[in-house]
Amino acid sequence: MRISNWATRLNVEVVHCEDRPDNPEGAIVYRLKDLFTTRDGQWDPTDTPGSIEQWARDSYLRPWNAPDVFDDAGGDHNLFARVLDLDGKPITTHDLVIGWSDGLHLLGDPNFPEHIKLTMTPKAKSGWGNQPVWNHFSPERGERGAWAWCPQGAADVVVGGGLPNNLHVSWFAVWQAERREEGGKPDEGEGEGEHPTIGVAPTLAALRQAAWQARGVPLNPESPLLRYARDHQLGAPLTEEMDVGAYRVQGFAQAIVYASQANQAVVEHMAW
């Protein structure tokens, strides 16, 4: 999973399918693959809050003469969604993605279909669907955007879309279909603390636990610093988590990751 720095700093949250209040079933689950933002509809990376990063531009912007041209890419106050099948090809099913603005908890409400719920239909060429939004929030005060969106069915949910400080920021989320693994999340399964048994295939969680123990660094799967490091592909941990003044800090192979003790939902990193 890749999440841009600005998306993280704007307090977005990714809720794994297994953590949803409605516990959706299905052999196929849609996992969030990429999440990024643009500012004022621009696709040139800058230091402007909410601007796109180079990896996202390289991955998703298409020339105007391309057969899969993304002709809505300049939308400047939108939620965008693209869903890929098991082979990585865009799915263009009608009303594939839903969005709503009253909280994740509505997924667990049996009357949720009666609430105002928007649907996004992807375009045949680009595979992108979108929905304009107008609500604003202040990430500096710890606020999160009101909008949530995800593919229908078993899927990870993105929570926190909106206009930070009323700036024209658009949000782009990409999901890919996977066959659901027994034991839940692909990266944070059950079996924490257990050791593989001879003759029994170990879970990915057990393999990861063993590798962390071999490094001598305690594994805390719920750590915001660890999640951030995985999302940004910062490599293996080099240190334990530690408190340094008002910050929580941990060193990884590619960067030092840190967050304020007062608001650990906002995580950043810096070079060694």
How would you portray this structure in words?
This protein is mainly beta. Helix content is 12%, strand content 30%. The protein contains four helices and 16 strands. The chain has helices spanning 5-9, 54-60, 204-215, 224-231; strands at residues 2-3, 13-15, 28-39, 78-84, 97-100, 118-120, 128-132, 136-137, 147-151, 157-161, 163-164, 169-179, 242-244, 247-251, 256-260, 263-270. The strands form four sheets. The chain has a five-stranded mixed sheet. A five-stranded antiparallel sheet has the order 2-10-9-5-6, with no helix packed on it. The longest helix is centred in the last third of the chain and has 12 residues, at 204-215.
Helix content: 10-25%
General shape? globular
Radius of gyration, in Å, reads 19 Å
- Biggest sheet architecture: 5 strands, mixed
Q: What is the N-to-C succession of helices and strands? A: EHEEHEEEEEEEEEHHEEEE
Q: What average pLDDT do the residues reach?
A: 84
Which class best fits the helix and strand makeup?
mainly beta
**Ranges with pLDDT <50 over ≥5 residues?**
187-202
Strand order of the largest sheet: 1-3-12-4-7
Strand content: 25-35%
Alpha-carbon distance between the termini? 23 Å
Count all strands and give the number: 16
- Total helical segments: 4
